[in-house]
TrEMBL record:
It comes from the Bacteria. One of its GO terms (biological process) is oligosaccharide catabolic process. Belongs to the glycosyl hydrolase 13 family. Its EC number is 3.2.1.10. Residues 31-458 form the Glycosyl hydrolase family 13 catalytic domain. Pfam families: Alpha-amylase. This is Oligo-1,6-glucosidase. Keywords: Glycosidase, Hydrolase. One of its GO terms (molecular function) is oligo-1,6-glucosidase activity.
Length: 602
């Protein structure tokens, strides 16, 4: 069990309802996208040895946990989220011995390692799936196999078991000539869904998870874990199958029905998660588990993360990162601060009495927040906005997640051509929406990709101003797998590391405050009316202590209500992205500067 260089939360305060408080209640997690973090061998792809070489940087930042996106053996159809062998490392990233070295070196620095785990689906190259293609094999029922629709030629359009569409475009069904049936894939056709209704599937998954836990990892982040239970009718048929009692819903603009209402938060989800807890985690110490949770409401988050229900420690909810999308993900609408405020309040209120919140704006599936909702057109706006969004997130109750480069204020890639993108989702969505369904113009689609496409967060980590940003050697024979953002010349770790006014230094302060001030980690949350739609304000309370957080999320000066103004100097400014003097004047006058964010002790 790793020892931290920080104080534990006293058990006189409540975190998620557990006693004693879990170690992660005042922790900060840092997500690493391995292929984009650090290339140690010049092949243009980041690797485990590269991560190990940067552990001192992460320890200096002050984070507690490193979450690694998948490094298992994989055909890399979806950048490793299509796993072909759960108990081996893909040669792109190194070896099992490299993983052991990373674990040892991280633990030596007081850092825990959480691995990304994908068990809603596997790769179609996994041995389990290959065996299931034989109807007489013991693995035959490990995936969702269905015959062609009666009266249709198998493998022809319209013969699919129902009309569900995939998240990555096209049908959610793929015909397999060897078996003579279709298999379900909610994502890529190379990512067939596992059939969690089969107890042998679950046993195999738990054996694999225990193998990793016994090897020394500190837990799992579980990809789309809330999709593992599907809705079935009384005879085991999926919605829309011939004879099913369940309707699959209306046809969408891309020519398919939506599977998500029938595959998200299904009827056996709680049962499966509780079983996983008993079979893998019960009796262990020092771990954490977090689930990616499409389709989960804040109210359901409270139940699943309530310790008395024995499921997961925390979940990633998505209601707040969908506020600039309407209908389709690719139909973007203007960002409105009031919508973000409402979603964050909902998430905080839901765990007021029990359970826990995960705090994030950025990850490998989301764009850079400073470009998405901020203003990256000039250095001052970019840095102020990066700090404002950082303060907003980290001053909420829950566990903050920092995505690699977020602590530097890294921006979107600003790609202008489709060929610059590498993401399967982006390329498939363009083909599906622009070329096939013709429901979106090329110009609109390219604008949406530039704003919210996943590759925006996947460009190489910006370590320095050299040719490839220090991600790989400037004279490397192979270019990085995806283009380096040209602004790495001014936005990079070397430039910011020793700068007291940098975004990096600001993030160090945010992390230290969470470690050292229980009110930030676990204090009660009270939203406040700022009297302005561009401002989010709230208070945190613990015992007799109160702090107030106020953030102007706009590029213009903004007035605030009289009730938020400070008329004396008894209060202490704990953190400001301007100067302390500027913060006092702003609070006294009731006028916040562009992107101004202040935390003040009342």
């Amino acid at each position: 069990m790793t020892d931290f260089n920080r104080s534990a939360l006293p058990d006189t305060v409540r975190s998620n309802g557990a006693t004693p408080n879990p170690w992660w209640a005042n922790a900060v997690v840092y997500q690493i996208y391995p292929r984009s973090f650090q290339d140690s061998n010049g092949d243009g792809i980041g690797d485990l040895k590269g991560i190990t070489s940067r552990l001192d940087y992460l320890a200096d930042l002050g984070v507690d946990v490193l979450w690694l996106s998948p490094v298992y053996r994989s055909p890399q159809d979806d950048n490793g989220y299509d796993i072909s062998d759960y108990q081996d490392i893909d040669p792109l990233f190194g070896t099992l011995e490299d993983m052991d070295e990373l674990l040892a070196e991280a633990h030596r620095r007081g850092l825990k390692i959480v691995m990304d785990l994908v068990v809603n689906h596997t790769s179609d190259e996994h041995d389990w799936f290959q065996a299931s293609r034989d109807k007489d094999d013991p693995h035959a029922d490990w995936y969702w196999w269905r015959p062609a629709k009666p009266g249709h030629e198998p493998g022809t359009p319209g013969a699919e078991p129902n009309r569900w569409g995939s998240y990555f475009g096209g049908s959610a069904w793929q015909y397999d000539p060897k078996r003579g049936e279709y298999y379900l894939h909610q994502f890529s056709k190379k990512q067939p869904d596992l059939n969690w209704e089969n107890p042998e599937v679950r046993k195999a998954v738990y054996r694999m998870m225990n193998w990793w836990m016994d090897r020394g990892i500190d837990g799992f982040r579980m990809d789309v874990i809330t999709l593992i239970s599907k809705y079935l009718d009384g005879r085991g048929r999926l919605p829309g199958e011939i004879g099913s009692e369940l309707s699959e819903g209306e046809m969408g603009e891309e020519g398919y029905t939506d599977a998500s209402p029938f595959c998200s938060d299904g009827p056996r989800l709680d049962e499966f998660l509780a079983e996983m807890r008993r079979e893998v985690f019960e009796g262990r110490e020092g771990y954490m588990n977090v689930g990616e949770a499409p389709g989960i409401t804040p109210e359901r988050n409270e139940f699943i993360t309530d310790p008395k229900n024995g499921e997961l420690d925390m979940l990633f909810l998505f209601d707040h990162v969908g506020i600039d999308q309407e209908g389709s993900k690719w139909n973007t609408v203007p960002f409105e601060v009031k919508n973000l405020r409402a979603r964050l309040v909902d998430q905080q209120e839901a765990v007021r009495n029990a359970g826990w919140a995960s705090l994030f704006f950025c990850n490998h599936d989301q764009p850079r927040v400073v470009s998405r909702w901020g203003d990256d057109s000039d250095r001052e706006s970019r840095e102020l906005g990066a700090k404002a969004f950082g303060m907003l997130l980290h001053m909420h109750r829950g566990t903050p997640y920092i995505y690699e480069g977020e602590e530097l204020g890294m921006t979107n890639a600003h790609f202008t051509k489709l060929e610059q993108y590498r993401d399967l989702e982006a390329i498939n969505a363009y083909r599906q929406r622009v070329e096939e369904a013709k429901c979106q113009s090329p110009e609109s689609m390219m604008a949406a990709l530039a704003l919210i496409g996943r590759d925006n967060s996947r460009t190489p980590m910006q370590w320095d101003a050299s040719r490839y940003a220090g991600f790989t050697a400037p004279d490397a024979a192979t270019e990085p797998w995806i283009g380096v953002n040209p602004n790495h010349v001014e936005i990079n770790a070397v430039e910011e590391f020793d700068d007291p006014d940098s975004v990096y230094t600001f993030y160090k302060k945010l992390i230290a405050m969470r470690h050292n001030m229980p009110i930030i980690a676990v204090g009660d949350f009270s939203p406040m009316d700022a009297g302005n739609d561009d401002v989010i304000a709230f208070q945190r309370h613990l015992g007799d202590a109160t702090i107030m957080v106020i953030c102007n999320l706009s590029s213009k000066k903004t007035t605030i209500s009289e009730s938020l103004r400070i008329n004396d100097n008894k209060q202490q400014v704990l953190l400001s992205n301007y100067s302390t003097d500027h913060a006092f004047k702003s609070m006294h006058d009731g006028v916040l500067g562009p992107w101004e964010a202040i935390t003040i002790q009342l």
